[in-house]
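Quick note —
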Amino acid sequence: MKKIVNAMAAAALVCAAPAAAQEDTEHSQSALSPGELDEFAGMMAGLFQTEPLTEEQNARLPAAQAVVGEMMPDGFYGEMMAGMMDKMLRPMLTMFSQPEFVLGARLTVDAETIEALEEGEQAELTAMLDPAYEARGDAMVAVLTSRMGGMFTAMEGPMREGLSKAYAVRFDDAQLADIAAFFATPTGGEYARESMALFADPQVMQASMQALPAMMSGFGDIESAMREAMEALPAERGYGDLTEAQRERMAELLDVDPAQLADLVNPPKSMDDAAGQ
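Predicted structure written out below.
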């Protein structure tokens, strides 16, 4: 119990210090210019190579767009994701705003001391330290869902376009017509509106959270396995490991003075060094 309280208290401290989180966010935002963000987005998008649509697939793209439009009407994605984030964040922040967790984060006392207090006494102490503790969680949820809702709204157009292309690739004309006909029925129309929202349903989210331990245990000891895999490969080379011919060729390729090469070649990093960055 003590370990759980301490872990939750640490999380509560983070929740109770939005200024620190804002400072970190502002720092990370200032680290990349808009041009660099565009470049990074392009690089990430390039990781997922897609074949151009064939002439046949392009011909059925309008039918696919009509089907996807029933599933993702304007404004749907932003509303759905904002609602999902609210359902995820509100219980967490409400829990972290409870007096027991706030006191555990703000007071250097044993967890048992806090647990021994009556509920009213915990609330009294918490109000001394944070008069707005009851409203703080709601305020943070409102800001986060509002900001993230805008982010997800910006994603809606590209998501709709990508999903339409996927439907045009995966379904032929007859299948798209069947789907459209089903969506035109009362049941089909309801399914079209709810099909994507189902993934944000509390039942699905709860089941996903319950599956986390099994999923994480499936990873096993990744660090040890990664070390074994790296040790089975030839070691990376530093400047001192290069032959004279390799140094000359590297200097030629980089168009630098060979005498400067030692300062340009960084030594290889161990897994521990790389993880620490």
